[in-house]
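EI: anyone free to look at a 241-residue chain?
SC: sure, send it
EI:
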Amino acid sequence: MRVAVISDIHANLEALKQVLFDIGRSNVDSVICLGDTIGYGPDPDPVVTMIKDLEIPCVMGNHEQAVTDQNYLQWFNPLARKSLLRTIELLSGNVINFISELKPFLIHHDCRFVHGFPPDSATTYLFQVSEDQMQDAFKQLKERICFIGHTHLLQIIDFNGTGIARTPLTQSVVNLNRKNQYIINIGSVGQPRDGNNHAKYVIWDTSEDTLQVKFIPYDMVSVFNKMIAAGLPLSHAFSLL
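SC: here you go
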């Protein structure tokens, strides 16, 4: 089975459309989303509606948490908070109801899917986790593989039972070791922060036990202009270019 995993779309409809187009021609059996469908970008309602209508399973991200419980707004820096307040204005009642029903994690194909860090955190960043905490997380993890997002950076964490290796992911195919456990950060569809502004997602082949990292171009200038027109923070718009 081939499973496409997407994350951190951040209301970037153009990027999502191009990623879904690529998924459609890549012989994929299912798609799973790791949250943060909203925030930063200009099209939160159409993005979530597309995820909903396509029946793509999705977990709760920290930006969704801020919509369902506005106490979480204080967790964000001032510009991200401003963006989220504008995002809330752009969301329909149906989409807010859909977001409020998202779960903190999903289990599919004997694999865990969570936004931030296992077992169920939407707010913990991978770079905040010490080596000891990482080993404890792996030992408590019932699944062999856990996919995460949140940092917008592609990275694979490999645990062989005694030691941990952290390796950046690039546009390539990675062979996994069936004896090892993995936490895999799949980057961002809508707002990458790795120096390459293409949309990112991965395809996990469960039979071959491979991970294919995809870099997808899209019309960034169009999204930039829409963000400016929507009154979203300039710094978030310029980060796309």
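EI: The two ends are 35 Å apart (CA to CA).
SC: 👍
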